[in-house]
Design brief:
The structure is a single chain. The protein is of the alpha+beta class and about 80 residues long. Helix content is about 30%, strand content about 15%. It has three helices and two strands. The termini are far apart.
Length: about 80
């Protein structure tokens, strides 16, 4: 269950709750979308702050770096020319 998922991610993603669904996009999967529920935990990305940063012209990479310092965004299923 929940512990196995956290262990498999190796601490690379801070998942505080087991209340989420994972969907893949593409065949083979090019992305995974985690959708969760709840009232929040006070840690992580603020939706309103991220939206304000986007409206101010920040890239998605800059927004993610702001909320999750040191995180790398990778696209493992893309070819070298993409």
């Amino acid at each position: 269950g929940e512990y196995a998922i956290r262990a498999a991610l190796g601490g690379t993603v801070a998942i505080k709750s087991g209340v989420f669904v994972v969907d893949s996009e593409g065949d083979p999967p090019a992305a995974f979308v985690f959708s969760g529920a709840g009232y929040g935990h006070g840690v992580g990305m603020c939706q309103y702050g991220a939206r304000a940063m986007a409206r101010a012209g920040y890239s998605y990479r800059a927004i993610l770096e702001h909320y999750y310092p040191g995180t790398m965004v990778e696209f493992p299923f893309r070819s070298a020319g993409d």
